[in-house]
Amino acid sequence: MASITVRDISKGFSGQPILRNVSLDIRDGEFLSLVGPSGCGKSTLLRIIAGLEDQDGGAIEIGGRSVDAERPGRRDVAMVFQSYALYPHLSVYDNMAAPLRQRSLTQLQRGFGLARLLPEARRKEAEFRREIEATAAMLGITALLQRKPAQLSGGQRQRVALGHAIVRHPKAFLMDEPLSNLDAKLRDTVRAEISALQRRLGATFLYVTHDQAEAMTMSDRIAVIMEGRVLQIGTPSEVYHDPADLRVARFIGSPRINVLPGEVDSTGRPTLLGHAVDFKVPSSAGSRVQVAFRPHDALICSADDARLTGTIQHMENLGSDILMHLALPGADEPIIVRESYETAARRRLGDKVGLKLDPQKLLVFDEAGSARLGQDAPVKTKAAS
Ligand SMILES: Nc1ncnc2c1ncn2[C@@H]1O[C@H](COP(=O)(O)OP(=O)(O)OP(=O)(O)O)[C@@H](O)[C@H]1O
Ligand SMILES: [Mg+2]
What we know:
binds adenosine-5'-triphosphate, single chain, six-stranded antiparallel beta sheet, 385 residues, Rossmann fold, binds magnesium ion, 31% strand
């Protein structure tokens, strides 16, 4: 297994920059997810690491060795694509054997059936069989080895594609949205299987997904890429609880984070939607800030008990919880608050309610959203706003 170093990689297509000086250190044995909106260059970066695409600038190292001059086959990384290309006319067994035969057998041995009977080829085939059977057992696909891909379910096909990558014992796995073709239930199952597999193999995984829930549950660390740059790299908990940039805060977390613009008054407190609130922010008087909070970090109260008030516009039933969408006068988008089913059952669409924020849980950013501002303790004991 091996570490992967991505240093200052830049890449554009037809003069349009896609990746701008992207740097990443993926440790040996680490599971690192790459997340970001569609089109931000995730697949492009993976293809550059695999050697399927040339970078315009920067360098790639695998296992501490520069691979920029090496063709894909020599880089010894296994790429698993979203649409796992299996050979339809070959059995599962032969699909898994293909990369091994490709690598080990001479063209003569591969091309002519008879040549496979030669002692050297037979010894190698026996080796492949042991490898394929052990991998199939690990993935729970032993019973499927003689089937053709068309006779498999989506999840089974996905496991075969993984098997195809694993038998080669690559230095690292590069996975490009490998679960996006599966239905929700199967995705949960295969997701858990991939995590377990990674732990068992102790392998280095670079895993691309635009499903942030997938990234949160599987990764040691997550790198958030947007507009061609790495905005933040950290543990799932760091990117969720401690986002460095408002774009990261907006991207990570479902339902999305709430954001209210504010202006700091002469006492250091921000005015949100025209209402002064009871906490200070570390920004000078007159400066504009963006105050963000997660749907479970706010409370709905009586309209008489809060300065921020609004009406219930929509209720989204998640089963155990309800997401309340509040329309606040002056706010660009509804504020989402998560409530228990019991609490929400008392409420009706159109009710006028108050919104209480927990000052300890607020994330305050500068006006551009690109810098996180530290936060003072609340100046009053009474809950803010
Ligand atoms: N060979 C190519 N020629 C021209 N433009 C390309 C090429 N490959 C990718 N692009 C463009 O580069 C950008 C990044 O593409 P990429 O496939 O890396 O995005 P992505 O982050 O993987 O998106 P998604 O989440 O939709 O898979 C896109 O705007 C895409 O249209
Ligand atoms: Mg992609």
